[in-house]
Amino acid sequence: MAKTALITGITGQDGSYLAEFLLKKKYKVHGIVRRIASEYESHRLWRIKNIANRITLHAGSLESYASVVKIVQKIKPSEIYHLAAQSYLDYSFRDEFSTLNININGTHYLLSAIRDFSPKSKFYFAGSSEMFGKVQSVPQNEKTPFYPRSSYGISKVTGHDLTRNYREAYKIYGCTGILFNHESPRRGFEFVTRKISHSVAKIKLGLQRNLKLGNINAYRDWGHAQDYVEAMWLMLQQKKPDDFVIGTGKQHSVKEFAKVAFSIVGLNYNDYVIVDKKLFRPSEVDTLLANCSKARKKLKWRPKVSFKNLVKDMVDSDLKFVKKTGY
Ligand code: NAP
Ligand code: F7E
Known about the structure:
alpha/beta; Rossmann fold; UDP-galactose 4-epimerase, domain 1; 2 domains; seven-stranded parallel β-sheet; globular; binds NADP nicotinamide-adenine-dinucleotide phosphate; binds ligand F7E
């Protein structure tokens, strides 16, 4: 019988790739979307337009236990991928309250609904390298202590603790994927990689003059989102639930990302990038680097897309996007 998966955050970057991945594996795919998402179809549903007639969407809010529980109780999914979150770090400094409410309570509501109404559902929690924050050792693996530097990071540490506690106390199959930054042409425009690839395309096409960035000396371990959704699925196919760090094991600065992106269209980043102190964060995560040897060994997972190919994929896609839309 076909397995059933429920994805929260199906309209996001990872949710859309994961839905496609699971459809290929013959899953019945359900997604929770905010009611407002179905109202603004052209905007919020753009990433899942191509698969809209093959998935089932349920209107619901992570802010309400009642809406979450009804969906879990009705579908009783084999697997639940909890990806929905206020995921933008900058915004988490501007609104700590909604970040903590959505990210912590949403996770708690789902776990509680699983325990009470669908205890056989396997649960994936979208943890983050932001949990390591001010890193306590380099590189970071599953044993590295957490030191979050934002309400976003704090919410992910708490979600991870909730997941572990439900696993231990109620025997729920719950895993946290501690994923390092992963990007793609479907990345939101506010994140630095997409801001760069989109601006590079606009500058090349004569629609923008320069690119303002904040801390270009921050280092990240960037992979491709398509590779990372496979790791999420693999975590739920193991005999025992466990937590895994997922990354490439290579790091680059924001400056390097910009350099490569401009060079792809034959431009020099020095001629266009302006550092704007207003874009610096109150507390920065300076450097992140994954040690994902546990995932390599136990999940047999490996990233396939290199850093250069990731940047090229994003810039090429944004050149097409800007030519088509004009913005
Ligand atoms: P994303 O593109 O920002 O997508 C976030 C999703 O969450 C969207 O579908 C959004 O729905 C939904 N959402 C937000 N608030 C909600 C609410 N109150 N109720 C229901 N849905 C809500 O994020 P992503 O990059 O795909 O990341 C997926 C998950 O992995 C997130 O939890 C993120 O924190 C985590 N993560 C991401 C990375 C990364 O590098 N991408 C790394 C580590 C962890 P709308 O479309 O309606 O806004
Ligand atoms: O910033 C610096 C910024 O916003 C990366 C989320 O998916 O990954 C993501 O969080 C770096 C930071 O991603 C700009 O200060 C410089 O050091 O692309 P970002 P993030 O904060 O790393 C983690 C793993 C998640 O879990 C999150 O959900 O780039 N930076 N100048 C800038 N960042 C932005 N956004 N904009 C700038 O102009």
